[in-house]
Amino acid sequence: MRYSFAALLAVTPSLALAAEPAPPPPASVDAPAVVAPQVVAPPPGVPAPTAAAPKEPAWYERVRVGAFVDAYYAHSWKAPKPSRTPATFRAFDQYKGFNVAWLGIDTALDPDPVGFVGQVRFGSATPNLALADATGEAAGLAVVQQAYAAYRPGGPDGKLTLIFGKFDTVYGHEVPQSHLNINYTRGAMFNLGQPFFHTGFRADYLATKELTLKFLLVNGWNNSIDNNSGKSAGLSIAFVPSERVAVTVGYLGGPEQTDTVQTPADPTTTPPTPASTTAVKGANGRMRHLADVVVDLRPVDPLRVVMNGTYVTEKIVHADDTKHTASWYGGALLARVGLGEKLGVAARGEYFVDAKHGLPTGGLFVGADGNPKKGTIMTGTLTLEALPTKNLLVRLENRLDHASEKVFADGLTGTTKQQVTTTLGVVVKTD
């Protein structure tokens, strides 16, 4: 289950004004004549001396290190009182008042032929990096966004790159870091409908300069340690015919349900009952299928338009052996217009449907019979941004979330169909 939803931060280098060179000083009548040094040719048969080849940098001199701080102030107009109760369906900006979402530290070494990426995150948003992964903290990966080894057999210009470890998902458009997205808050599509990360193997192949293929074999959705013996396989195809058009389509399929039930020991029985593990029949055969498409357009400068659609389906078997098919789907439309080098305005609209059985929304949409029912969520977001310097991003954002049922907080104890928030986000980052 995810209560968590990518982006443009274009910084144009400043223009330096070159001063007109000063005229050379007048020659002094007392200055000695400048005599060019005489070049003596080597004797016949003796090769001419050659310049020493430049020394290649050591691997540690090629490591790139960066950092950023992401802080925000959020106000909920329907439930304004500060509290630690998170906003509904929000992952990385869920708390009201002042907050520090991230302190991020990034390291990377481009594969030549080996390399790596390591990213750690600290702050109130960190636990939601692995919201669906109860083993992440125990495995020491709760603060790790990405950590993987990379091997490119052909060196820097090779077409094939092999990745092994924990890495961001290749599906959807938005990412956890706000400054890499078009808006400050992440949308419902990202928070509810798509995975955050994968752990396993990935092969990236640059077939042509326009076509990139990515193949995945992973633990599934948001699993640092797998919850079953099956694996999920996926493919992403990115086609970029020009700098103004990019289309990415992807598929991921595999079992996501736990295939064992752990029963703790009970010392109160006679004799005491030991802990046991029971297999869940058929869990590894109940597949989750995800299909995703992203269209990223830049029709004219300075306009950018992004469209993202996702559809997911999964087989469900209940305790009474009744069988159902859960599904969810949605679409998002995002746009950003640059207003010069230092200002911009962006907007996002979304329509998300939890069609059956409440998997992405946690069963908050409930019918009169007490069972999960179909629920819809629509969001509208308007973002104003300023870039005072290339290292500082400030965004002021108003957002409306509307649901088909009363699932949002209204005051301290009530519920309502709308969630209205205003957020001021400030990000400082290194180059």
Structure summary:
The chain is 1% helix and 47% strand. With 431 residues, it is mainly β.
Unreliable segments (pLDDT under 50, ≥5 consecutive)? 1-36
How far apart the termini lie comes to 35 Å
Structural class: mainly beta
CATH topology: Porin
Number of separate helices: 1
Gross CATH architecture = Beta Barrel
Q: How is the main sheet built?
A: 16 strands, antiparallel, barrel
Could you characterize what this model shows?
With 431 residues, the protein is an all-beta fold. It has a single domain, classed as Porin (Beta Barrel), CATH 2.40.160. The protein is built from one helix and 20 strands. The N terminus is likely disordered.
List keywords for this structure.
1% helix; 16-stranded antiparallel beta barrel; two-stranded antiparallel ribbon; globular; 431 residues; mainly beta; Porin; 1 helix
Please outline the helices and strands.
Blueprint: E1 64-76, E2 97-109, E3 114-122, E4 144-151, E5 160-168, H1 188-193, E6 197-206, E7 211-218, E8 232-242, E9 245-255, E10 260-263, E11 276-279, E12 287-297, E13 303-317, E14 323-338, E15 343-356, E16 375-389, E17 392-403, E18 408-410, E19 414-416, E20 418-429
